[in-house]
Specification:
The complex is a heterodimer of chains A (about 290) and B (about 270).
Chain A (H helix, E strand, L loop, with lengths): L8 H4 L8 H6 L8 E3 L24 E8 L2 E8 L10 H19 L4 E6 L10 H18 L5 E5 L9 H7 L2 E5 L9 H8 L9 H8 L1 H6 L5 E3 L3 H14 L10 H9 L9 H17 L1
Parallel strand pairs in A: 3-4, 4-5, 5-6, 6-7
Antiparallel strand pairs in A: 1-2, 2-3
Chain B lengths: L6 H11 L12 E8 L2 E8 L17 H17 L8 E7 L6 H5 L2 H18 L3 E10 H6 L6 E5 L5 E3 L3 H7 L4 H10 L7 H5 L6 E3 L9 H19 L7 H4 L1 H6 L1 H15 L1
Parallel strand pairs in B: 2-3, 3-4, 4-5, 4-6, 5-7
Antiparallel strand pairs in B: 1-2
Helix pairs in contact in B: 2-4, 6-7
Classes of the chains: A alpha/beta (about 290), B alpha/beta (about 270).
Chain lengths: ~290, ~270
C-alpha cells in the first residue's frame, strides 16, 4: 500500500472484460452461496451444430449460477462471447429462459429472486436460425413475467456487446449496466452498411461506432442506468446495488409516451452527430417536463 | 419481393376491419382498427410500407421507431381500457420484411422502440388479453420480435409467400460464409434453418397452418374461414395459461425441440436440489 500514491487507479483494477463467462458470473455472489446449474459436465449441447460440422460446447456458451446476492436469492446467466459470438441457440436460449422461469416461480412462492443477465452476443445463432429467434421471443416473455416480481438486470461489459434480437431483451430489463467498452444496439454497423450502404453507416469508422452504440453514449442518453469501469469489484458492487434496489416504479420499455414524444420531435431529414444527439434528446426531455 | 411486402397485410387488415387507414395522429405505416370478431370486438394491428415515412430507412415496410412506439401505444390503450372488464382480443397481422437498418435508428435506440412494442404485446397477454398473430406474408427477425412473436397463439398461411425467419437468405449466407445455394441445401436438412413455412410448422411454435388459395385476393368464404380460425384460437388462449408454454407442449415441439425440453427438465431438477 506504500506505493498507492504513485500507481494510477487503472493499474490497480481487476479487469472484468478479461474474465470468461463462468468467472464473470461468479463475482456477484455472497461467499459460499453459489452453485452452477446445468454445467459443462451435464453436457447438454446444441444438437444442431454437429450436423453442420461445427464443434459444440458442453455448456452451449451459457453459464447459469444460482445463489445469493446482497443476502437475496438471485440467478446469474452469462453468455460466453468467445463461443460462436455469444449467439443464441436452442440450448443457450432455453437455459436463460428456464432459469428466469424458475426464478419467477420462486417469486410466486414468496422467495424474492432476482436475475442478472450478462450479455455478450450478436443475437440469433444463424445455424439454429428459427429456434434461436424463438428462444429470444420466449426469453423476452420470461423477462416480462419475472420483472413484475424482482429486478432483471442486464450487464453488457464488452467486447462483443449486445446486438440483434438480444438488444430487445436488454430493452426490457429493469436496469442496464454498461462499461465504456461495451456496445448496445439492434443492428451492428456491418449489417447496416450491407443493407443500406456505406453512406448510411461506415462500419470501418470505429469512433463513430462507439459514439453511437457505446456505453458512455447510452448512459448519457438515459438508455443505460449505470456506467462502470472495467473493474471487477466496481462492476460487482453496482450489480449488488441494483439487486437491492428492487423493481423500478416504471420500466423503461413501458414509458411509451415519453419516448414516442422524443422520437416525434427529432428532425429525421438528416443524420445527427452523436454528441449533438445527447442535447437533442435531453432538450426534448426537459420540454416534456415543462409541459 | 420487397414491393409485395405490405400488400397482403393491407388486404387482410381490410378484410377484417373494412378499412385500411391509420388512427388519427399515427404514422401511415401502422394500421389500427377495431372490428367484431365472433362475440368479441377485437383490436387489429398491422405494419405496412409508407414510402413517405419520416425515417428514410423505414420506407419499405421495415419496423422502426415510429412503428414500434405506435404499436406499443395502441396495444397499451386497449390494456388500459379493458383494465376492469373483459379483455378483448388483440390481433397482430404480420407482413414485415425486417427491422429498419439505419444510423438514425441506432442513434435513437431502435432497440428500445422494438422492446416497447414487445413489452406492450407481452403485457397484454399477461393481463389476460388473447393475443393472436396471423402471419400472412413475411415475419423476419427483429420485426417479428417487435410485432407478433409475443402472442399466445401464432397462425400462418401455408403458402410460398409466407416466411418466418431470423435473417433473409442473402444476409444469412454472408454472415455464415456460405453461398445462397449452399444455404438453401443446408436449410433442407436442418429444419430450424429452413425458409419453408411447412418446415417452420415442424418446430411446434405454430398453433395452426391455414390454407388460402390466393392470400392476396381472398374470397369471402376464405375470409370467414380465417375469422373462424382466429375465433377458435382466441377461445383456446382464454382457457390456457398466459405464458408461452404451449410452444413447447405441442406434438411437433416434443419432437423437434427435445433439447429445449431436456434443458428445462434438468435445470428444474437441479434448481430444486
Amino acid at each position: 500500500m506504500s506505493n498507492q500514491a504513485y500507481s494510477p487507479n487503472f493499474i490497480k483494477r481487476r479487469s472484468f472484460i478479461e474474465l470468461n463467462a463462468r468467472e464473470r458470473a461468479s463475482v456477484f455472489f455472497d461467499a459460499g452461496t453459489s452453485r452452477e446449474l446445468l454445467g459443462p459436465f451435464d453436457r447438454v449441447e446444441s444438437p444442431w451444430l454437429p450436423m453442420q460440422g461445427v464443434t459444440p460446447q458442453e455448456d452451449d456458451g451459457c453459464v447459469v449460477i444460482k445463489g445469493k446476492i446482497a443476502g437475496q436469492a438471485a440467478v446469474v446467466v452469462a453468455l460466453e462471447g468467445a463461443f460462436q459470438g455469444g449467439s443464441i441457440g436452442e440450448v443457450s436460449g432455453q437455459k436463460m429462459t428456464a432459469a428466469l422461469d424458475l426464478a419467477c416461480a420462486d417469486n410466486e412462492k414468496g422467495i424474492l429472486t432476482s436475475a442478472v443477465i450478462l450479455l455478450e452476443t450478436g443475437g440469433v445463432r444463424l445455424q439454429e436460425a428459427n429456434l434461436g429467434l424463438a428462444a429470444i421471443a420466449e426469453l423476452m416473455a420470461s423477462i416480462l413475467a419475472l420483472r413484475k416480481h424482482a429486478p432483471v438486470i442486464c450487464l453488457t461489459a464488452g467486447t462483443v456487446g449486445c446486438f440483434g434480437g438480444m438488444s430487445l431483451a436488454a430493452g426490457l430489463a429493469s436496469y442496464v449496466v454498461m462499461t465504456r467498452e461495451a456496445r448496445l444496439g439492434m443492428n451492428g454497423p456491418e449489417v447496416i452498411e450491407q443493407e443500406n450502404g456505406v453512406e448510411e453507416f461506415d462500419s470501418s469508422d470505429r469512433a463513430l461506432i462507439w459514439a453511437i452504440h457505446g456505453g458512455e453514449q447510452r448512459y448519457a442518453t438515459g438508455l443505460a442506468d449505470a456506467l462502470v469501469d472495467d473493474d471487477t469489484p466496481q462492476v460487482a458492487e453496482v450489480i449488488r446495488r441494483f439487486v437491492s434496489k428492487g423493481v423500478p416504479p416504471e420500466h423503461r420499455s413501458s414509458q411509451v409516451a415519453l419516448y414516442r414524444n422524443r422520437i416525434a420531435k427529432l428532425d429525421t431529414s438528416r443524420q445527427w452527430d452523436p454528441k449533438e444527439f445527447r442535447a437533442l434528446w435531453t432538450t426534448n426531455a426537459s420540454n416534456e417536463e415543462n409541459r | 419481393m420487397s414491393e409485395y411486402t405490405g400488400v397482403r397485410g393491407t388486404v387482410w387488415f381490410r378484410a377484417f376491419t373494412g378499412h385500411a387507414s391509420p388512427m388519427i395522429g399515427d404514422p401511415n405505416s401502422v394500421l389500427t382498427g377495431d372490428a367484431p370478431l365472433g362475440s368479441d370486438h377485437a383490436r387489429f394491428l398491422c405494419v405496412v410500407p409508407d414510402p413517405h415515412a419520416r425515417f428514410p430507412c423505414a420506407r419499405h415496410g421495415e419496423v422502426g421507431q415510429e412503428e414500434g412506439y405506435t404499436l406499443a401505444a395502441r396495444v397499451r390503450e386497449v390494456i388500459e381500457h379493458d383494465k376492469n372488464t373483459i379483455k378483448r382480443p388483440i390481433i397482430a397481422i404480420v407482413d414485415v420484411k425486417s427491422q429498419a437498418y439505419g444510423r438514425r435508428e441506432e442513434t435513437a435506440a431502435i432497440f428500445l422502440a422494438a422492446a416497447a412494442a414487445a413489452d406492450a404485446y407481452g403485457s397484454a397477454r399477461l393481463a389476460g388479453h388473447p393475443v393472436i398473430t396471423l402471419v400472412v406474408g413475411h415475419a423476419l427477425s427483429g420485426a417479428f420480435l417487435t410485432h407478433g412473436y409475443q402472442a399466445n397463439r401464432i397462425l400462418a398461411f401455408d403458402d410460398d409467400g409466407v416466411m418466418i425467419h431470423a435473417m433473409h437468405k442473402e444476409a444469412a449466407a454472408r454472415v455464415t460464409r456460405r453461398s445462397v445455394e449452399e444455404l438453401e441445401k443446408l436449410a433442407k436438412e436442418i429444419v430450424p434453418m429452413s425458409y419453408d413455412i411447412r418446415d417452420y410448422a415442424k418446430l411446434g411454435l405454430l398453433y395452426k397452418l391455414l390454407h388460402v388459395e390466393n392470400p392476396e385476393k381472398p374470397s369471402p368464404p376464405e375470409i370467414r374461414n380465417v375469422q373462424d380460425e382466429l375465433i377458435a384460437a382466441i377461445a383456446d388462449a382464454r382457457t390456457s395459461p398466459v405464458d408461452l408454454r404451449n410452444r413447447l407442449e405441442s406434438t411437433a415441439a416434443r419432437e423437434l425441440r427435445k433439447a429445449s425440453i431436456l434443458v428445462r427438465t434438468k435445470l428444474e431438477a437441479q434448481w430444486l436440489e
